[in-house]
Specification:
Layout: E1 2-8, H1 26-35, H2 43-52, E2 59-67, E3 69-78, E4 81-86, H3 99-106, H4 118-129, H5 134-148, H6 151-160, H7 172-183, H8 187-208, H9 219-237, H10 251-254, H11 259-275, H12 290-294, H13 304-325, H14 337-351, H15 353-356
Antiparallel strand pairs: 1-2, 2-3, 3-4
Helix pairs in contact: 3-11, 4-5, 5-13, 6-14, 7-8, 7-14, 8-9, 8-13, 9-11
Length: 371
Amino acid sequence: MVCVARCCQVGSIESVGRITRAAMDFAKAYKQCRKSMALGRGIKAVEACLHRGKHEFDSLQEAKLSCFRDIRGYKIVSSGECAFFPRDLSEIKVGSGLAWYRDTFATTEIVLPPYHSFGFLSEYGGKISKSNSEEERYAHANNMLLEMYTPPRMADLICGAWSQRITFAQYQEQLIEAVKAYCLGLYGVAIVGILPCIEGFLRELGKHVSLPVKDAVNIETLLKVFHRIKQGELKRLVAGYDWYPDKELTINYLSRYHERVQMLESMEMYFRGCFYGHTESLPSHFVLNRHGIAHGFFKGYATPSNFLRLFNLISLLSFAAILVEGRGSMLQPGVTTDSEALALNFTKCLLSRRYVQPNAQSILPSPIILG
């Protein structure tokens, strides 16, 4: 919370030895200020409304909640308790922040890619949104995945970002094995190998937010983890306040502009609509589904781009791990000695593809040329 310089001190502080009065009824005062439209007219109008309602307070000042966008309003202190009255929550429009990217990439079963620039995401987001057919849309999306996740860049992420996450520790070797299988052209093996890691990460994230999901496998239980992380974002936003309009300033409200909440929602949407979706309700082209793969219902999922979709999902899960573990960089990790060694290992797997699959090329698929 950041307060602006302008401050209007009103009311009086209780004298020493005097019986302490109860704090004002913030909910009632806010309702009156909102109904009279005083909040949008400025601090003097709010002060006058509070006096008309006979609400006793010690101080009133302009303030704002700052995270990606400013929510402007007023800080009111009454008998040691502090409240935030937002000026006008409609000032921040629906669809701000990363909402467009989230929704655009979701049309091709891709969660918001972390560790990449807005310029890069805007370029491919524009291509995807302007596509004239489903085939063209998915071709652009698959090209983006191939460009983002070359074997050296995957090595950089594994060594420079994922290895730093406590949440990922027990799955590190399995992730590396899955990428090796991908480089060898064994896409089905790579995808099946990475699936257990994803659910394991959700369980580990749950432990860090005091929400152990134990042996639950249903989507509603697992998604409570994301809800708990988003609650943490809301608590951070209003830290220092005893009261705020919690029926209006909600997680759903934050989703219109708050970039971290939107990234978490990107994963929720993917898990609910694709990864854990009911197999009978999925569109025919959605084959990257945990149940469909594990129970042998789906075929055709073993493609390079589908493995990279899951790799990208894990990359975003590593972003969630930063939020719950409280440490880590959200920037693209650089090259290290360890990542160079791992990248060389991946390259050797690429070169060995022809021995594993005699008809396979020794390089990864080339981007699809459109138009």
